[in-house]
């Protein structure tokens, strides 16, 4: 078990050293895909903190930016803004609303700093007491 942990920590550290940006590599890939899909959606404000996000073929969802929810449920389940949320953030920015940095809409578990912190511990064998 210890050997597995040592290997795992070393592999993750190598990946972290190559990572660019504030997120883990997989998260960055998911964000890029969601951004490209978001360009096909239209978000319209429907009152309060909610937006109706639509695309052709009856694909419709409601994004609630106050409660960080989307009716597709991906945002709540994985903590990464889905394509509907990103389309909403684009619309909010177009209307001069302060959405801040897109990174603030992510769960902290996907931040590279969180990853580095989690993998900062080393698996080594304690010396036996004499």
Automatic annotation (TrEMBL):
GO molecular function, one term: zinc ion binding
Transmembrane portions of the chain: none
SMART domains hit by this protein: ZnF_PMZ (SM00575)
The entry's keywords: Metal-binding, Zinc, Zinc-finger
Keyword Zinc: yes
The protein, known as: SWIM-type domain-containing protein
InterPro entries per the UniProt record, alphabetical: Znf_PMZ, Znf_SWIM
Domain SWIM-type positions: 51-93
Coiled-coil intervals: none
Keyword Thylakoid (UniProt): no
């Amino acid at each position: 078990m210890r050997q597995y942990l040592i290997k795992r920590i070393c592999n993750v550290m190598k990946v972290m050293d190559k990572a660019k940006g504030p997120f883990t590599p997989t998260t960055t890939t998911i964000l890029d895909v969601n951004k490209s899909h978001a360009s096909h959606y239209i978000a319209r404000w429907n009152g309060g903190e909610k937006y109706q996000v639509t695309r052709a073929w009856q694909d419709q969802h409601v994004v609630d930016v106050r409660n960080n929810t989307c009716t597709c449920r991906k945002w709540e389940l994985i903590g990464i803004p889905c394509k509907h949320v990103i389309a909403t953030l684009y619309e909010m920015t177009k209307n001069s609303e302060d959405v801040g940095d897109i990174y603030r809409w992510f769960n902290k578990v996907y931040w590279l700093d969180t990853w580095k912190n989690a993998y900062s511990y080393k698996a080594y064998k304690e010396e036996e007491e004499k």
